[in-house]
Design a protein that fits this description.
Subcellular location: Membrane
InterPro entries: UPF0014_fam (IPR005226)
Organism: Streptomyces mauvecolor
Oligomer: single chain
Protein name: ABC transporter permease
Strand content: under 5%
Number of strands: 0
Membrane topology: Multi-pass membrane protein
Order of helices and strands: HHHHHHHHHH
Distance between the termini: 72 Å
Structural class: mainly alpha
């Protein structure tokens, strides 16, 4: 057993959470409350999932419902991280565009069976990767468009379509959302031993099997995240996801 589930573990978790929030507060990062809330939510959610997983894995309808819930929470989380207005729901597109084809291919090829014990963790990893890429790509693109609004309008004045002018400004910033996944893949086995690899080893798999599963996860994540960033960038460029009303030179009366 990697970690014994006892009072000592609980005390250490509380201490680490308080330390993280304390450091954030002392450095005036403005996220100390979010850290505390995230930690408490994670504990509650994992406890509920641990209790419910027994019933979910044994029923296809419950399994599909659980996967739909995972997707819905990811969409809500990603959308609200990008914008506070009603365009947040467009986050459903990049997450689905990245995850659905990959999961479908895995099911059709038989690499992943329609069993909760396998499908839930694999789909959860991919949805989580798509969520992160969507948030980072969308936020970076929107931030860049806000900071460099004058350049966007200048491009439009020179004859570029609205979409093309926004793409020219937002694309380099949005592409940075791929860096965490790229760095993780480049350094796997040298800097870190990711969770899938360690979990397989603890479950009794051979190092070769564990390595193959981890490689599959990393490559699948890169595919999912590349699609998610591309789709969210296109949505931002087309104005489907935005933060405030945009006034461009073409909107103004002569």
């Amino acid at each position: 057993m990697l970690l014994p589930v006892n009072v000592t573990l609980g005390a250490v978790l509380v201490a680490l959470l308080l330390a993280a929030a304390g450091v954030a507060a002392a450095a005036h990062l403005g996220r100390h409350r979010e850290i505390l809330i995230a930690g408490v939510r994670a504990a509650v959610q994992l406890a509920v999932v641990a209790l419910a997983i027994h019933w979910v894995v044994g029923s296809v309808p419950l399994l599909l419902g659980f996967l739909a819930l995972m997707y819905a929470v990811a969409v809500r989380t990603a959308g609200r991280r990008m914008t506070a207005n009603t365009t947040w729901w467009w986050a459903a597109a990049p997450i689905a565009a990245g995850v659905v084809p990959v999961v479908s291919a895995l099911l059709l090829t038989g690499l992943v069976p329609v069993k909760g014990i396998t499908l839930i963790p694999v789909t959860g990893i991919l949805i989580g990767g798509a969520l992160t890429a969507t948030v980072l790509g969308g936020r970076r693109a929107l931030d860049e468009l806000t900071a460099r609004r004058g350049e966007v309008e200048a491009g439009m004045a020179l004859g570029l379509l609205d979409r093309d002018a926004r793409l020219e400004i937002a694309r380099p910033a949005a592409s940075d959302a791929l860096l965490p996944g790229l760095d993780q893949t480049r350094t796997v086995g040298l800097v870190t031993l990711p969770g899938a690899f360690v979990g397989m080893l603890l479950g009794g798999a051979s190092p070769v099997q564990a390595g193959a599963v981890q490689l599959f996860v990393l490559v699948a994540l890169m595919a999912v995240q590349a699609v998610a960033v591309s789709v969210v960038l296109e949505l931002v460029a087309r104005g489907k996801v935005h933060r405030e009303a945009r006034v461009t030179v073409r909107d103004q009366s002569p």
